[in-house]
Design brief:
The chain is α/β, with parallel strands linked by helices. The protein has one domain: Aldolase class I (TIM Barrel), CATH 3.20.20.70. Helices cover 37% and strands 14% of the residues. It has a 4-stranded parallel β-sheet, covered by helices on one side. The protein has a 3-stranded parallel β-sheet with strand order 9-1-10. Strand 6, helix 7 and strand 7 form a beta-alpha-beta unit. The radius of gyration is 19 Å and the shape is globular. The protein starts with 5 loop residues before the first strand and ends in a 27-residue tail after the last strand. 49% of the residues are buried. The structure holds iron/sulfur cluster (SF4). The site of iron/sulfur cluster has 10 residues, from loops.
Amino acid sequence: MHPDGYVTYLVDRNINYTNVCTINCQFCSFYRPPGHEETYTQTYEEISERIVELEAIGGSRILMQGGVNPALPLQWYTDLLTHLSTHHPSIDLDCFSPIEIEGVAEICEMSTLDVLRAFKDAGMHGLPGGGAEMLVDDVRKDVSPKKGSPANWLRVMEEAQSLGLTTSATNVIGFGENTSQRIEHMRRLRELQDRSLNVHNTGFTSFIAWPVQLETNSFGRRNRGQNKYTLGAGSSEYLRHVAISRLFFDNIEHIQASWPTMGLAVSQMALLGGADDAGSTMMEENVVSASGTSKMDASEAELQSSIYRAGFTPQRRNSDYEHLETAINPEATKMLIAPVPRQS
Ligand code: SF4
């Protein structure tokens, strides 16, 4: 699909606007239940300050996600989106995930489609693919019993696509699922992609997989009673999953390597195994990193360097994978990338 030798990357910032959540996913060390002393919700001004820092390095989008916070009504979100799109018109606002959309819909007694419409009208550019994890009912019931069903995740994504929002698909492996279940996840995405391309003339821009991070998780429910699963996935298994996904998704154009969870060295190898995108600078990340991954930001020069060293040409892009003008940092051609030690 990408014979031109370019590997794309995005200069962006992750923002995790609230850690209050009522969903209690087994693998999540980020959230705090309502009333917990460590809860936070950022103000519009605090979020804006983070975007100003992104603008200072020439970034083009934010990826803003958080917990399902029952204290935040629809208007909190629409006012936030209006504030951000007014003050930062050049930044694409890729925000929330299907479970957050379901949460707002439930609190406000609206349909998820109407919530998405209101968010789009207020300036939302895209709905990122967070919260998909493993779109297989058995696995989801075990690791995220209070999360919306796989069918709900797919429905909300299709609704977002019907409105022309930019969407991506994700996949977390290593919950003890078997190979058939991994393929089941990908099959459901591929079928939705076929339908969306036909019906809505749009679909997922990309597929991004990574192994569940386990350093600070006990996975009590998943390993309860008779159930003993081998959790997590190492580098070899991750790379094979990337390669299989490239072969499997004949209808999703881009496969993204995950340096935040695998380290830059393994993500370079993913570029040789089917991925054509090196991900993004992120600047900060708090959800996955709360479960143990160690390095959660990369400079543009680091991403360019890792792309060069894998044998490709770095190409800056925006959220829609349109190529942007790319200034190669002189440091990128000589910087040494130290492999990040990963769990086995
Ligand atoms: S993964 Fe998301 S939905 Fe699940 S508990 Fe954490 S913040 Fe909540």
